[in-house]
């Protein structure tokens, strides 16, 4: 399963919760102190970032990939 990650940066307050819970280090805090998607190809669609974001700033769209 692959995923597409969407980030509403205007909602992000830079708490870092999503970064801390991402098991594949897909996310990072940028120079402005906000969440940034740095490694989208590594996303395993676990949804931990979306589940834990207190500001509803990040969304994971899970997609099935044909084998």
TrEMBL record:
Keywords: Iron, Iron-sulfur, Metal-binding, Oxidoreductase. One of its GO terms (molecular function) is metal ion binding. Residues 3-32, 33-63 form the 4Fe-4S ferredoxin-type domain. InterPro entries: 4Fe4S_Fe-S-bd, 4Fe4S_Fe_S_CS. It holds the Pfam family Fer4_10. Its EC number is 1.2.7.3. It is an enzyme of class 1 (oxidoreductase). The keyword Protease does not apply. It comes from the Bacteria. PANTHER family: FERREDOXIN SUBUNIT OF PYRUVATE:FLAVODOXIN OXIDOREDUCTASE-RELATED, IRON-SULFUR-BINDING PROTEIN. This is 2-oxoglutarate ferredoxin oxidoreductase subunit delta. It comes from Pectinatus brassicae.
């Amino acid at each position: 399963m692959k995923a597409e990650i969407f980030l509403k940066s205007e909602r992000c307050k830079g708490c870092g919760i999503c970064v801390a819970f991402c098991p594949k280090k897909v996310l990072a805090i940028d120079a402005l102190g906000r969440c940034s998607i740095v490694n989208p190809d590594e996303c395993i669609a676990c949804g931990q970032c979306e589940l834990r974001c207190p500001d509803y700033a990040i969304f994971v769209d899970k997609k099935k990939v044909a084998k």
